[in-house]
Automatic annotation (TrEMBL), chain A:
Keyword Transmembrane: yes
Protein's name according to its UniProt entry: Cytochrome c-type biogenesis protein
Signal peptide extent: 1-21
Upper lineage: Bacteria, Pseudomonadati, Pseudomonadota, Alphaproteobacteria, Rhodobacterales
Family: Belongs to the CcmH/CycL/Ccl2/NrfF family.
Pfam families assigned to the protein according to its UniProt record, in alphabetical order: CcmH (PF03918)
Record keywords, A-Z: Heme, Iron, Membrane, Metal-binding, Signal, Transmembrane, Transmembrane helix
Domain CcmH/CycL/Ccl2/NrfF N-terminal intervals: 10-152
Keyword Membrane: yes
UniProtKB/TrEMBL annotation, chain B:
Domain Cytochrome c-type biogenesis protein CcmF C-terminal: 315-638
Domain Cytochrome c assembly protein: 89-296
Naturally occurring in which organism (per UniProt): Roseinatronobacter alkalisoli
Coiled-coil portions: none
Protein name: Heme lyase CcmF/NrfE family subunit
Length: 154, 657
């Protein structure tokens, strides 16, 4: 496959210099704030790349967004407030972890619901197999008889 | 001239494929033996023609024939030889030709090694396989012709995408295709069995090696892709839950489920219709993956979006084969009555649980992958579904799988006793949990990720060991050791593959949970201390490669004054393609990788350098390798070799009397 990574890497690199994702001059002096900034950026999607977070992306826009996140943190915003701020500016699309509101609830409950359905049908099936009578042995088909003859001849 | 011959051979093969899709099917229906048998030579001829066609395209790349459009767009005279060969499949058109080549290879293999199959089943399998091949040949010829010529050939080509000029990525696609296409064989067997109206133990035995082979190839393909991402992208990520990755992961999960449920069909003649359904869906997901990758449907940035016409074509193939097969399934499934009766606590049930976990987790990945599309079309919301969702929704399934694996693997067939099976396992379970707890107590931070991963990994590996050891029966140590070496290869395959899963689970947890990172500006000559190492940036040089220029740093790593390694992270620029790449430098060790990547020069002098300690990274690739190796062991089991050679041994067997 022309791997996804190829595509995203091509796109990101095509849009940007070869700068590393997080650059030394972006890092905040306060290690607690910086680690919060990293956690937040890992959950925000770079808009020009295909499927990279801004924390991983080399694109210039991702750098702008990282700086924005740090700016808000330094101003004293909570994590949720920073994320809300970014979402307001760039839209729901930037959230790598989809919200649970509205139709998205279908997405979030899909895993447990599917699992319960599959598990209960499996259990019903297993119960039934447990009680099923041993089927009578079916006879051999014509082809099988021919093959058996052939094997016995040898 | 050779290029035209290649094109012609492909069209000829298409004609043969159409004939092979019809004649044997009619023959099998009417019971005409010669109509059935014609499928065998036809499959070989198809393979020969496509192989010639593929060789012709490779030739055009090797001699840099710039009158061929594809060569111009994906090659350059200066490109190293190996990438001229891999460049053939490093693009859409060429990769489709490789896809078709592998389809015909599998078809021909079914003709060559299928001598022991009943004639009607073999004829139907080959016909179905040929129908798939014909569909993809039509796709290649009519929408993605790799042999298109240019009226005015340029002097030189525009070079292959530099990211593809890498050994890891050069061999990633062929393995992945072998896996995807291998599942077409399981599909053909399933459809043929449905037409035939008969699924028995023998069918399970025939379909399993094909599924195993496909799964082994997919494992290798995914692992090489992941490894490539690890060393190439410059920050050591190995899995991104991207649509295209998911497209390869879903068939892998299905193939894993299928090869387990085929065991139940083979040994116990039950779970038949479920196994057939898995075989159909497995290939369905593989086609879905092709569709996702080729149509550009899920690519929101359009630079790589393919021709929509191609997407529609693949969607038609997908709809045609899935629709047809599932309709057939709905009609015929009730005929497939189960034979073996088994208790609720039994190996059969354990394998059903395995299938539930694998199939549901695969559907979860599917829903997550397709959700942005659904949300946009139905609810008018533009959103993303990224790694945080998949990690949360998918991981519990793998945890559950690892927890039940050792128990399920040791439960006896038909009727088991949980207490008795658990007797040798309790000690291992307690030991694993204790090791996890110890790790949790010793590590810094409160993350439960690594302790849980470690406990599960130990549990699965030791559990697999207990399983194979229990197969040696009772008695003296020496006798049991001797019996251990004589166990069927399938037992060794099971042990190796299951251990591989355990190792992989641990490695993923350790790598994600324990990695550390350091970003800083380093002056030339400066030494910095990170992760127990003294790292000195000794120089940054400009180096000329065959078709690129490189900015190469030299960083010396020492530990307590002792020399460890000289690492050379690079930034390359490919002038013809106009693209930069990063080449990380990695010191591979058993318990950790030291991973260095070079960034930009800074305004005030010095270079940005990123350093990582990646704990147990090698264990990840080793775990995948073990899984694939386990598959190969099982594939070489005597019962398949004997079955495969049955036709031959019959003719040259000497009568005993």
């Amino acid at each position: 496959m022309n791997g996804i990574r190829t595509i995203l890497a091509v796109l990101c690199i095509a849009f940007a210099s070869t700068a590393l994702a997080v650059q030394p001059d972006e890092i905040l002096d306060d290690p607690v704030l910086e680690s919060r900034a990293r956690d937040i950026s890992a959950g925000l999607r770079c808009l020009v790349c295909r499927n990279e977070s801004i924390d991983e992306s080399n694109a210039d826009l991702a750098r702008d967004m990282r700086l924005l996140v740090r700016e808000r943190l330094v101003e004293g915003d909570s994590d949720d407030a920073v994320i809300a701020f970014i979402v307001e500016r760039y839209g729901e699309y930037v959230l790598l972890r989809p919200t649970t509101d509205g139709a998205n609830i279908i997405l979030w409950v899909a895993a447990p619901v599917l699992f319960l359905i599959a598990l209960s049908s499996a259990l019903v099936y297993l119960r039934r197999r447990d009680k099923a009578p041993e089927p009578e042995k079916a006879g051999l088909s014509v082809e099988e008889k021919r093959r058996l003859q052939e094997l016995l001849k040898e | 001239m050779i290029v035209e011959l290649g094109h012609f051979a492909l069209i000829l093969a298409f004609a043969v494929a159409l004939a092979q899709a019809a004649i044997p099917l009619i023959g099998a229906q009417k019971g005409w033996r010669d109509w059935m048998l014609v499928a065998n030579p036809m499959a070989s001829v198809q393979f020969g023609l496509v192989a010639f066609s593929y060789a012709a395209l490779t030739y055009a790349f090797l001699v840099s024939d710039f009158s061929v459009k594809l060569v111009v767009e994906n090659s350059h005279t200066l490109k190293p030889l190996i990438y001229k060969i891999s460049g053939v499949w490093g693009n859409h058109e060429g990769s489709m030709l490789l896809w078709v080549l592998i389809l015909t290879l599998f078809g021909a293999s079914a003709a060559w090694f299928g001598g022991n199959l009943p004639a009607s089943l073999q004829a139907r399998v080959l016909a179905v396989q040929s129908a798939i091949t014909a569909a993809f040949m039509a796709f290649t010829i009519f929408t993605s012709n790799p042999f298109t010529r240019l009226a005015v050939p340029p002097f030189d080509g525009t070079d292959l995408n530099p990211l593809l000029q890498d050994p890891g990525l050069a061999f990633h696609p062929p393995f992945l295709y072998l896996g995807y296409v291998g599942l077409s064989m399981s599909f053909s067997f399933a459809v043929a069995a449905l037409i035939e109206g008969r699924v028995d133990a023998a069918w399970g035995r025939w379909v399993r090696p094909w599924t195993l082979a496909a799964w082994v190839f997919l494992t290798i393909g995914i692992a090489t892709g992941s490894w490539w991402a690890y060393y190439e992208l410059g920050w050591g990520g190995f899995w991104f839950w991207d649509p295209v990755e998911n497209a390869s992961f879903m068939p892998w999960l299905f193939a894993a489920a299928l090869l387990h449920s085929a065991i139940v069909v083979e040994k116990r003649e039950t779970l038949k219709s479920w196994t057939i359904l898995l075989a159909i869906l497995g290939f369905g997901f593989s086609l879905m993956g092709t569709f996702i990758v080729r149509s550009g449907l899920l690519t929101s940035v359009h630079a790589f979006a393919m021709d929509p016409e191609r997407g529609v074509f693949i969607l038609m193939i997908l709809a045609g084969f899935m629709g047809g097969a599932l309709t057939l399934f709905a009609i015929r499934a009730p005929v497939l009555e189960a034979k073996g009766v088994f208790a609720t606590v039994s190996r059969e049930s354990a394998l059903v649980i395995n299938n539930v976990l694998l199939a549901v987790s695969s559907f979860v990945v599917f829903i997550g992958t397709m959700w942005p599309l659904v949300a946009e079309m139905l609810f008018d919301r533009v959103l993303s579904v990224g790694p945080p969702f998949f990690n949360m929704a998918f991981t519990p399934f793998m945890v559950a799988l690892a927890m039940v694996l050792p128990i399920g693997a040791m439960l006896p067939w038909k009727r088991g006793n949980l207490a008795r099976t658990m007797r040798p396992l309790w000690g291992l379970a307690i030991f694993s949990v204790a090791m996890g707890a110890l790790t949790w107590a010793m590590q810094t931070g409160n993350s439960a990720l690594v302790p849980v991963g470690l406990a599960l990994g130990i549990w699965v590996v030791l559990g697999s060991g207990a399983d194979i050891w229990s197969r040696t029966g009772r008695g003296a140590m020496r006798a049991r050791m001797a019996r251990l070496t004589r166990l069927p290869r399938a037992d060794w395959g099971k042990f190796t593959a299951h251990s591989g899963l355990g190792v992989t689970v641990f490695a993923v947890a350790a790598l994600v949970g324990w990695e550390s990172e350091d970003i800083r500006v380093v002056q030339i000559g400066e030494t910095y201390y990170y992760g127990g190492y003294d790292l000195t940036l000794t120089s940054v040089d400009r180096v000329e490669g065959p078709n690129y220029v490189s900015t190469m740093a030299n960083i010396e790593a020492r530990r307590d004054g002792r020399f460890i390694a000289n690492l050379q992270p690079e930034k390359r620029f490919y002038p013809i393609a106009g693209m930069p790449t990063t080449e990380a430098a990695i010191d591979y060790r058993i318990t950790r990788d030291l991973y260095l990547a070079l960034g930009d020069p800074q305004d005030n002098g010095g270079w940005a350098v990123r350093s990582y300690i990646k704990p147990f990274a090698n264990w990840l690739w080793f775990g995948c390798f073990l899984m694939a190796l386990g598959g190969i062991f099982s594939l070489s089991d005597r019962r398949y070799r004997v079955a495969a050679g049955a036709g031959k041994t019959r003719t040259d067997a000497v009568p005993a009397e």
